[in-house]
Write a structure and sequence with these properties.
single chain; 362 residues; mainly alpha; A middle domain of Talin 1; two-stranded antiparallel sheet; 73% helix
């Protein structure tokens, strides 16, 4: 191992450890925010926590795009998505009380389905190689960004209706998008000499939320700073080892930049916030696809999805397949488990190992 490669590996490992610590802090802060605001773990995990834990992918892909390294930029996004889905198995194992899917909100099916749509759009973009851009961003990246915005809006609506009691919890319930009819409640005579309820301490709640916001923001900045180191060192490792930027971007960088999702999801499961954990995983996959637009803007050599190796379409299609398996598991809700892990999670891990072997051969 050359001195330059040794330094790159050391810097890579140190940056990954910093991301590890930041991800743990993010998970705890997000859990407390969900409890304080009562917005719900589904939306907090799928949007707020997912956006924060995906910042390494944001920084790495934009930085790689500005350095004219489209394979690292795109491979980081697609590879992070397939790696993120294997975290479901780890979360299931940590949970250890039967398959995780049977305890989750129905909203995760919506997030997983949108993940399939975005993966299919990305794979088609890599294969079609359309040449048109608007404002320096390819039409394909803009279409993916618009689809992400629609997914976020629909998840927000679902979470709001779930909080209001308008989302079905079993087949045959009211259709999502309709409001439940109010049920008349018979009036009760007031209790004699009722005691006035104590006024809530709004100032204390505001101070608590302020502290949570600061803690969340500081952890986010910590994760972002460390992620900048990953982009540089990963390219050096690719050049020194000769592994190739497609494999390095899709596997090495992707696994490292997904460390916040790993730590945050495991910490959330251990705290009993299973919807926060799975929302973080599936929401990160949605957010990652939106990263293609700013990475495309940073690339400046044309649509970035038309400049990468066709092998990246394989990674995107593996992501589509793994997302489909996750959606089936979330919808079917099988109670069977092997090695304390649900069958769907085990199949996802097997597909990821297959994807790794295929990409290594590229």
């Amino acid at each position: 191992m050359t001195p330059d490669l040794t330094l790159s590996v050391i810097a890579f490992v140190l940056a990954a450890l910093v991301i590890l610590a930041g991800g743990l802090t993010l998970a705890r802060a997000a859990r407390d925010i969900a409890r304080q605001t009562r917005v719900g773990e589904l939306w907090i995990g799928s949007v707020l926590l997912a956006g924060a834990t995906s910042l390494p992918e944001v920084a790495t892909s934009i930085f790689a795009g500005s350095l004219k390294l489209p394979d690292i930029a795109v491979g980081n996004v697609f590879g992070s998505n397939i790696y993120n889905l294997t975290i479901l198995a780890l979360a299931d194992l940590v949970h250890g009380r039967g398959p995780l899917a049977i305890q989750l909100s129905e909203g995760h099916v919506l997030a997983g389905a949108f993940g399939m749509v975005l993966a299919a759009m990305a794979a088609l973009a890599v294969l079609i190689r359309q040449p048109w851009s608007i404002g320096g961003i390819g039409l394909d990246s803009l279409a993916i960004l618009a689809t992400y915005a629609i997914a976020t809006a629909m998840l927000a609506r679902f979470a709001r209706q779930q909080a209001e009691g308008g989302v079905p919890t079993a087949p045959g319930g009211p259709v999502v998008g309709t409001r439940p009819r109010p049920v008349p409640v018979p009036a009760r005579s007031p209790a004699p000499n009722p005691r006035p309820a104590p006024a809530p301490d709004l100032s204390a709640d505001s101070r608590a939320m302020g502290r949570l916001a600061i803690r969340f923001a500081l952890a986010t900045l910590l994760v972002l700073g460390a992620s900048l180191v990953l982009g540089v060192t990963a390219d050096r490792i690719a050049a020194e080892t000769g592994l190739g930027r497609t494999f390095v971007g899709s596997i090495l960088v992707a696994a490292s930049t997904s460390l916040p999702e790993t730590v945050a999801s495991v910490a959330a499961v251990r705290a009993g916030a299973v919807d926060l954990a799975v929302g973080n995983i599936l929401g990160s996959n949605l957010f990652n696809m939106a990263i293609l637009a700013p990475a495309d803007l940073a690339y400046r050599q044309g649509p970035i999805l038309s400049a990468v190796s066709p092998a990246h379409a394989i990674t995107a299609l593996f992501g589509l397949l793994m997302s489909g398996i996750a959606v089936v598991g979330l919808y079917y809700r099988s109670g069977r488990a092997y090695l304390r892990v649900g069958v769907d999670a085990l199949v996802i891990v097997g597909v990821y190992l297959l994807a790794t072997a295929v990409l290594l051969g590229r």
